[in-house]
Each structure stands twice: as structure tokens, then as C-alpha cells.
């Protein structure tokens, strides 16, 4: 097909939108390891999980066999409000780089939550409503997930209780106000509203909180209030399932114009975006139908895939959630202050970890200043102001395109542009003022953290 | 056509996008009055205007005869990066209101500037580049225009000097950082960098600036630097011309699905969005091809159409720009603090003023609290967090839809959703906290302002 026939933005028609999510675990030869109960360190049961999570979501979490799961009608209706998201051909970036590579990005930022998080938030809110719950609880750090969940709960008229890491609550008042606009109850964490919060405040009176602490408060709030469950925006297999809508749309859009990806790139924190983007492509590869090069990009300050160990670990620092086997830096690892808030997670989705362990995916870590350089370069030619998280993928996409310039190869590069940076201008300001720092943990720091990993004997 | 066949979002295909702008003045029987030179109060010449504005833009400003003007190829390429904007069917809002009315909105917020301003910014930057200029100067209040112009100048590698009203510069540091990301030079106004700025600072040492003052500085900077011109984001006829892309796309999208609008609603500050949205529809009406009800919505705190006088007035408080005949509250009128920053303008586009004077358009003023109530209601069902400016149109669209509910009429309502409110969360916070105030100027205040209008004798 002639290059000029491919539009700047490929939008699927409503009737071309996916009607089923794709569950990559069904096609994996080596399945992700079982989740463990944090109290017993033994495989967790469906019943145990159902005390914390919604029933239908627990089923999805444990489902390793069904490749396709129907997207309920009401979720598909909601998707139509902000999806399909465009697959954009980065003509201007290609021209600026002078590369023969064809660059595409799947842009998930055109909704008020500002990221792909809404894809799973609406699904989780739907199942909570179906179960007859009053509401859900969650934590949020950078704020994208909390915003997405607020929007989803508002749509289904569910109560939404968000524990927001106190320093974010104070530094990002605008994020908080967006959540309030959607009727969410936002509490700075740690708070006096939970036992665990009170305990942490008594021990560390001046603390500005952490994601681990906020998770612990949210889980306590879910399990001590009648009619509530806890929901999580990343890491879990159910989240990757819902996020597969990203990859399914991207694949359909490429197919529509007879294009085939060579390299697929995504930023990786807990893995929600990367897993969702690559799943259907990985499925083709697992079934022997196509071959791709997959690249996970993580911050050098929090390099779980590139420098972590593959072991059982707690998903949260509070140690209240199930354990999973994953690439981890240790649940006690505290990343240096890094503005790409959504990528500051010590572990990685169990599914992605297994794929990486099996050599089916590559990983790279990049430093923050180089990431913001790529972000600014991208913004100036493509118009979109990217989130710092998404910009990790931009960095590697540009690097790969420049390699093609050297070799003359016309590779097709697809990357996930997860969201916009409107609420991250403090970080951009630091970058403009030359005050951004790059920090890479030392081997000693990592070894000290690995030493504290739980001893699991199965 | 069956209601269910109309998708949530109508996107035109690239090849369906407008190739020409529409100039409504060509179809107007009564043309807008001529612009006047502020020094002589006599009709301004093309040559005089060319000292301030780019040559080609001056031609467009004075063109009352050509109905269609070609959109240059490079502008059309840029449009493809963020256009076509979707015409959205507000199914969820209709359901929530229980109205038989069909509600559509043309959403212009899916670009980094967050509003429709980019449509004219890219055109103005293009003509500046074509003229071989080094750069352009402008002022910005709320920041949308400054951001849009920064993006446009970055694309064409033009220097961009933005004078930002000092209180906005301080209260909206994130807007400033977005502009810096696109390489703009942002100066808080009044500043020491211009003679007029120095003078104002000497007279009012603690001033936090005003739009009028920022315009004066930007015009001085344009006329005293070699290779610079001044550009403006609203009010002017050239801006309405460029913004006609909004209405042309909306009309094409409705036509594509066999729909016909009955009521067309837009918020009105200087008139850039409203004029752009209604132009092609108004053209049909002026040519006797169709009939519509057009409603301009303005804030009760700054009611130029509903309570102003139709007279010659200065476009800026600094009295350096040409005068035009328009509905005005007087160039010295200072609106009460109102968070819908983009609508705090004392006058109105000359074209829209003439159409209003001829009875071809209605106008309504609405109070701020009612506007934010509509904004929040809209956000919760339609997902998009609207800008306060845009929410004026939402308020009246909801009012009209509720009237249909009473009468049972299935009218088709189309309104302009000009942008997103991500940088307006201070205002939302005030609303959530019940600290928002409604202020309406008294008749005495307006009469005192009218008394200071210039005496024009033509």
C-alpha cells in the first residue's frame, strides 16, 4: 500500500471495535505462577480472593484457559464514549528524524483521566455494580488511576473511596479536584480513618505517605465496610485482560491498512499498558503466526526487569495483598524521587515477568533526562504533550528509528503513548530549568533489598 | 435514519476534511463596519494594518467578497495531526436528562492547547513564516491562545513571544510550562521589556496586569523589532475565517448521517469559537437554504451582547489596536473576577455584532454557579471535563433540552465544546467548596463605562 494512503490517524469504526478481550495466558506454554496468600504463603483460593476483590474479577484473575472473554454490553457502550483511540502515524516525527522507519503510536490520552487506566476502571466498576456493591476503594499515586476510577464509578453511581499518597495529594491539588468533580471521596494517606493509617501516623508522625501504605488503607477500608471491595489499576492479570483492548484495536488498525509491526514498544511500571498493548501480538507469536520484537521500557531509577530478580514477592509494602512471582526489586525498595510516578513500582505483572523469563520480550532502562528530551522533541513535532511515563516508550522508539536511519531499514515501529502530561508540568519545569536529576540505584542497594525478599517454600 | 445507526462520535475521513475556509461576510447583506485607525479615528488602510499584522492576514481581514478561501497545503497537513475533531452524539446526557432532543457537540479539546484556538494559530503562524518573518508576538490571559500559538510557532520554527497577564503567569505556572515546552518566550505583563510596560509599572508598581496592558506590550514588541508582527486569537474577522473549519466539519458530519440542526449554541467571549461554529450554517440561512436558531452564550458578569451598546470602540484597553463597531461594554470595563477567563472581553467580533444587530442571532447571559453545575453534570455522564468557557454553552444546551422535555419536541441541538478544563481546577475547587460567587454589573456601572466610549464622527 502506498504510504500516502495511510491517514495521520487511523480510527476504527464503532462496529470494528473489539467485542471480546484477549487473555494471553491461554496461549502461554509456561503459565504465570499461582498467587499466594500473604498470611500462609500458600496458593490463594478463589474464596479468599473474593473477600478482597469482586467475584467476577477473581474469576478473570484465575482464568488461564479462555483466550477470549466477552466485553459486557454496558462496558462496550462506555468504551464508545472515548474509544476507539487513534493509531497515529507519526509522519512529522519520522520527517524530523529523517528515518526510513514507519512509526505508529497508539494514543490513549484522549479522555479526562488522561491515560489508558480508564479501560480497566470501567470494567472493574461494572463488575462491582453487577455484584450489587455499594462502592469500591483504591489507592492512587500519580493520580491517573484514581481519576479513571472516579469517572467509572460516577457512570455507574458507585461510591468511590480513593486513598491518595499524601505528598501527591498536596503536590497535585488539581488531580484531586478532578476526582472530586466525579464525586469521589479522596483521603490523603496515611489517614486517621483506618487502623493501619493510625498506626503508621503514630510511628511516623511527619510521613508524607507511600503507595504501599495507601494500598494497605484501601484494602482495610474495603474489608471492614459492608458492600465494598478493593480494586487495583495495574499488575494484576485481570487488568492486563481489560487493557488488551489497546492491542486489539492497534492490531485491527494495522490490518485495515495492510501494515505489519516489526517492533512493539511500551513503558512498564506494573505492566498494565505494556501487557495490554502487546497481548494480541504476543498471542500471534505464541501461536506461531507472526514474529515481533517486544521492548519493555522502564526507568533506570526503578529497573525491575533489567536488574531485579525473578522471585515470589509481596505486591504491596504493607504485605496485605497476595504475593506473586515476578521480577522485583523487593517490596521494601524505595525508588529515588522520579517524576514518572506511574513507573515507580518495585515489581512487574506476573504474566509479563513469565514472558520475559522465557525470552519472549526484551527490556531496557532509560534515564530521566533522556526521557524528557524525547518528550519535548515529540511534543514539538507531533503536537501531543506526553506524560513522563509514556515518554519512556518515546525515547526507545526514537532510538530504534535512529538505528533504522543508520542501517537504512524500513522497519515498522509501534509504541504505546499511554497518556498526556497536563498534570506533570512540575516535572517539565524542572527539566526546563536544568534541575532534573538522574539516579540509578547501586548494586549494594539492590542486594540489600533482595535480602529481605520473603522465603517461599512451595 | 435510525437513531441507533448514528455512532457516539462522528469522525470525518481525512479526504472529507474542508479544503477551504468559509467567509460568512461574503453572504452578509449588511457588512461589518470598517476598522478605524486608533490615531485618526478614520478607516484604516491595508498599509497601516500591515505594519502590525502579516500581509496575507490583512487581506483576509479586509476581504468581504470571497466566500471561500483555500486552506494552504501545509496548514491542512497540520490540521490532520489533531483534526477532524469529533462531532459527538451526547447519548448519555440525553438519557440523564430524559429529553427527546438529540444533542450533539463539536469537541475541540483533543489537542495540547486544549481548545479550538489552534485552528487559527497555525494559520497565522503559517502566513508569518511565508512572509519570511522571524517571529510573532501576542498576549495571553487564560493561556489557551498562548499555548496554541506556541505549538504553531514550534511547528514552523518561528520565534514566539507571549506577554502573559502577570496574575495568570503566577496563578497558572503549568500553562506557562506548556508554552516553554514548545519553545515560547513567556514574559509576565507588565514587564520592563517594553516602554509601555515600564510606564505602567512606574504608575502602578503593584499591578498584576490586564489583557489590555499585555496587548499593548505585544504590539509594541512587534512594531519595534525587525521581522516581527503581532497576532491575535479572537475578535478579528480573519480568526472567524480560520475557525470556520469547526462549523464546516460539523455541517459535513451532520450531513453524512442525514441530520439537520435546529438550534446551534456557542459560548461567546470575543467570538472566535461561536463565529467559527455558526458561520457555514449562517451562510445557508443567509442564502435562504435553511433556517436555524443561533444562541450566543455569555457570562452575566461580562454581558457585551445582552447589555452592551452597538458602537465604535477600541479593541484593547491600551487603545493601540484598530477600533471596530461592535457590541461593547466599553474598553475600560473591568469584569469582576470570573474564572471563565476566555470570556472576559469587553467587546465582540464585528461580524457577530452585525449579525446580532440584524436579528439573525440570539444571545443569553448565564451566571457562573449555574455554569459549573452544568459542567459537573456533563462531566459525570459524558466523561469530558469541560473548560469553564465551554460550559456556558453546555448550560444553555441543557436548558434547551429540558424545554424539549416539557414540550415533547425532538429538536436537534448542536453546541460547541471548545475545550477542556485541566488547567482550570482552581475554579472547580472553588465551586466544590461553595466559594464561587456570581456577580452581575449594575446599570450604573455600565452607563459610566458607556460614557467613556470614543466619539467617532465618520
Automatic annotation (TrEMBL), chains A, B:
Keyword Lyase, does the record have it?
yes
**Broad enzyme group:** lyase
Determine if Amino-acid biosynthesis is one of this entry's keywords.
yes
Q: Which Pfam families match?
A: PALP
Which cofactor does the UniProt annotation name? pyridoxal 5'-phosphate
Catalytic activity reads: (1S,2R)-1-C-(indol-3-yl)glycerol 3-phosphate + L-serine = D-glyceraldehyde 3-phosphate + L-tryptophan + H2O
Q: Which organism is it from?
A: [Clostridium] polysaccharolyticum
NCBIfam families attached to this UniProt entry: PRK12391.1, trpB_rel
One Gene Ontology cellular component annotation?
cytoplasm
Identify the EC number(s). Answer: 4.2.1.20
User: According to the entry, what is the taxonomic lineage of the organism?
Assistant: Bacteria, Bacillati, Bacillota, Clostridia, Lachnospirales
Family recorded in the similarity comment: Belongs to the TrpB family.
The identity of this protein, by name, is tryptophan synthase
Q: What pathway is this protein said to act in by its record?
A: Amino-acid biosynthesis; L-tryptophan biosynthesis; L-tryptophan from chorismate: step 5/5
The UniProt keywords, alphabetically, are: Amino-acid biosynthesis, Aromatic amino acid biosynthesis, Lyase, Pyridoxal phosphate, Tryptophan biosynthesis
Query: Which Gene Ontology molecular function entries are recorded, alphabetically?
Result: L-serine hydro-lyase (adding indole, L-tryptophan-forming) activity; pyridoxal phosphate binding; tryptophan synthase activity
Tell me where in this chain the Tryptophan synthase beta chain-like PALP domain is found.
Answer: 82-419
Known partners and oligomeric status: Tetramer of two alpha and two beta chains.
Please describe what this protein does: The beta subunit is responsible for the synthesis of L-tryptophan from indole and L-serine.
Amino acid at each position: 500500500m502506498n504510504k500516502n494512503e495511510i491517514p495521520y490517524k487511523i480510527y476504527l469504526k464503532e462496529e470494528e471495535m473489539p467485542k471480546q478481550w484477549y487473555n494471553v495466558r491461554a496461549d502461554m506454554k509456561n503459565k504465570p505462577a499461582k498467587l499466594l496468600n500473604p498470611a500462609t504463603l500458600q496458593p490463594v483460593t478463589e474464596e479468599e480472593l473474593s473477600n478482597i476483590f469482586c467475584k467476577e474479577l477473581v474469576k478473570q484473575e484465575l482464568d488461564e484457559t479462555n483466550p477470549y472473554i466477552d466485553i459486557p454490553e454496558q462496558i462496550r457502550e462506555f468504551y464508545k464514549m472515548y474509544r476507539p483511540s487513534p493509531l497515529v502515524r507519526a509522519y512529522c516525527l519520522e520527517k524530523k528524524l529523517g528515518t526510513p522507519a514507519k512509526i505508529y503510536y497508539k494514543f490513549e490520552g484522549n479522555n479526562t483521566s488522561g491515560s489508558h487506566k480508564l479501560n480497566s476502571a470501567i470494567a472493574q466498576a461494572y463488575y462491582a455494580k453487577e455484584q450489587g456493591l455499594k462502592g469500591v476503594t483504591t489507592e492512587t499515586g500519580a493520580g491517573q488511576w484514581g481519576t479513571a476510577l472516579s469517572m467509572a464509578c460516577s457512570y455507574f453511581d458507585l461510591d468511590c473511596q480513593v486513598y491518595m499518597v499524601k505528598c501527591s495529594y498536596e503536590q497535585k491539588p488539581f488531580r484531586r479536584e478532578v476526582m472530586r468533580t466525579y464525586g469521589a471521596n479522596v483521603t490523603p494517606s496515611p489517614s486517621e480513618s483506618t487502623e493501619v493509617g493510625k498506626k503508621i501516623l503514630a510511628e511516623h508522625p511527619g510521613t508524607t505517605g507511600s503507595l504501599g501504605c495507601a494500598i494497605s488503607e484501601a484494602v482495610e477500608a474495603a474489608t471492614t465496610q459492608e458492600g465494598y471491595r478493593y480494586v487495583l489499576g495495574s499488575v494484576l492479570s485481570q487488568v492486563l485482560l481489560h487493557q488488551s483492548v489497546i492491542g486489539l484495536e492497534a492490531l485491527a488498525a494495522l490490518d485495515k491498512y495492510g501494515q505489519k509491526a516489526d517492533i512493539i514498544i511500551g513503558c512498564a511500571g506494573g505492566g498494565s499498558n505494556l501487557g495490554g498493548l502487546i497481548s494480541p501480538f504476543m498471542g500471534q507469536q505464541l501461536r506461531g503466526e507472526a514474529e515481533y520484537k517486544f521492548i519493555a521500557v522502564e526507568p533506570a531509577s526503578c529497573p525491575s526487569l533489567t536488574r531485579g530478580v525473578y522471585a515470589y514477592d509481596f505486591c504491596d509494602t504493607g504485605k496485605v495483598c497476595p504475593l506473586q512471582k515476578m521480577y522485583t526489586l523487593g517490596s521494601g525498595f524505595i525508588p529515588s524521587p522520579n517524576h514518572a510516578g506511574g513507573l515507580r513500582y518495585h515489581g512487574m505483572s506476573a504474566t509479563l515477568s513469565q514472558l520475559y523469563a522465557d525470552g519472549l520480550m526484551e527490556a531496557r532502562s532509560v534515564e530521566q533526562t533522556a526521557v524528557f528530551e524525547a518528550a519535548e522533541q515529540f511534543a514539538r513535532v507531533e503536537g501531543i504533550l506526553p506524560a513522563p511515563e509514556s515518554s519512556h516508550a518515546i525515547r526507545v522508539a526514537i532510538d530504534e528509528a535512529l538505528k533504522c536511519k543508520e542501517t537504512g531499514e524500513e522497519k515498522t515501529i509501534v509504541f504505546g503513548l499511554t497518556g498526556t502530561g497536563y498534570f506533570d508540568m512540575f516535572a517539565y519545569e524542572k527539566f526546563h530549568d536544568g534541575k532534573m536529576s538522574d539516579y540509578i540505584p547501586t548494586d549494594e542497594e539492590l542486594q540489600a533489598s533482595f535480602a529481605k525478599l520473603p522465603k517461599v517454600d512451595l
